[in-house]
Amino acid sequence: MKSFLLTWLGTAVALLITANILQYFDIGFEVDSFVTALIAAIFIGIVNAFIRPILRILAFPITLLTFGLFAFVINAFALWLASFLTPSYGFVIEGPIAAFLGSIVLSIVSSVINYFLRVVE
Predict the structure, then answer these.
(1) Which residues contact 77 (CB under 8 A, 6 or more apart)?
(2) Of 1, 76, 89, 100, which one has the fewest beta carbons inside 10 Å?
């Protein structure tokens, strides 16, 4: 239970950091507050747990042909879908470029945060 809460908080913090980094590019990646980030982290977790595996199976031939680069598109779509499910909470991604860059930055920031959280445990 402790690791679940730490992962949830880590994802929310990573989402806030990603939004702050991407605000300089003005591409439409917005997270209003920490509460919004917590809610969005729940929806990102749900999408990653249920929908993303199905997408990965269906897109396996394309991913194989592109030597794994299509996985970035799948991650961007999963992130956009999570923002689509939470528009009234203040988590907004406007367009495919924002979703693509957001998924890349979010994965890097989230990896760093989760590394430090594992060291703390």
Answers:
(1) 55, 99
(2) 1
Instruction: Specify the pTM.
Output: 0.90
CA distance 6 to 116: 11
CA distances from 27 to 19, 30, 84, 87 (A): 10, 9, 16, 17
8 A C-beta contact, residue 49 and residue 39: no
pLDDT of residue 82: 93
Q: Are 19 and 30 in contact (CB under 8 A)?
A: yes
Place of tokens 């760093």: 112
* Domain boundaries, position 39: 1-120
User: In a 10 Å sphere around its CB, with 0-12 CB exposed, 13-18 middle and 19+ buried, how is residue 93 labelled?
Assistant: buried
Given pLDDT bands bounded at 50, 70 and 90, which one contains residue 75? very high
Beta bridge partners of 31: 91
Number of H helices, E strands in the chain: 6, 2
The number of folded domains in the chain is: 1
